[in-house]
Amino acid sequence: MHESALEDIDAYGENPIGNGPYKLAEWNHNQNAVVVPNEEYSGDRAPQNDGIDFVFYAQQDAAYADLLSGNLDVLDAIPDTAFASYQDELAGRFVNDPAAIFQSFTIPEAAPHFSGEEGQLRRQALSHAINREEITDTIFQGTRTPATDFTSPVIPGHADDLAGAEVLNYDPERAKELWAQADEIAPFEGEFTISYNADGGHQAWVDAVANSIRNTLEIEAIGNPYPDFKSLRDDVTNRTITGAFRTGWQADYPSLGNFLGPLYGTGAGSNDGDYSNPEFDAKLAEAAGAEDNEAAITAYNEAQEMLLQDLPAIPLWYSNVTGGWSENVDNVEFSWKSVPVYYEITKN
């Protein structure tokens, strides 16, 4: 940070000094913030506009209404109330593409019936029992993209043809066959639950996934709502949760490894299911020590092929970035981070 931060950190927080293409010109709390080009910036992201006015809305619907009326230039999140209409209303001035956000549900390694050979069979059966295409079309109205791996299509090196990726295809007959093979090892009893936080808008898709599993495998599969995110995370962190639970990841930086190491490496901080595979760990180490990106990508995808066999988490879909812009601007593109590339936007 700039040295002035040390003199008065509170004042610096109100008027921060950065080294990017813009600098803060005005900040009206809870209303808007205005940035203008930074004359001291000498990098390769030179602003193609005179600055940006970030407007803070209490409701997404109000922001969308302003977009349609021309009072807002760019919106980076279409409200779900407009999912059925925004593509027609914006007439080509929208984006609906996979983002660097991966959604899944995790089954703890210690969960009864989900370890060893029996567990691998059941995990694969569950994956085949989920109709991802139908759920993303019906529940999310096409604003999610069915997963083909454990990362995201916007990350360099992503592949949708990994060995074993067919386990992510909806195949009811194969699902029943695998579940029956697992029952021969030890019959499954009781409910299969998917826990989620009720304050996060997850009930519809959890219920749809549970219904798909129940109808396919003819077992009692249900959603298990927690009142809030903290309550769910407390049980996950304390390892007091016994069934499956919703999980996901948003990339910190554009690397396949950022999706794999933190979630599935032995002892990793976000490895909530306690998955451990020495061969997988070795592949992560090989990728991290690779001489170039191409070699690293190869190793990371070989590691993913192990995950597709073990399924420590069941991949569901990638969240899409859904945004739009008015007729007042051009050159609007969204980066891998799911936000507009602000400095490229030009005003008509």
From TrEMBL:
Ranges for domain Solute-binding protein family: 6-270
Protein name: ABC-type oligopeptide transport system substrate-binding subunit
Superkingdom, natural source: Bacteria
Pfam families named among the record's database cross-references: SBP_bac_5 (PF00496)
CDD domains named in the record: PBP2_NikA_DppA_OppA_like
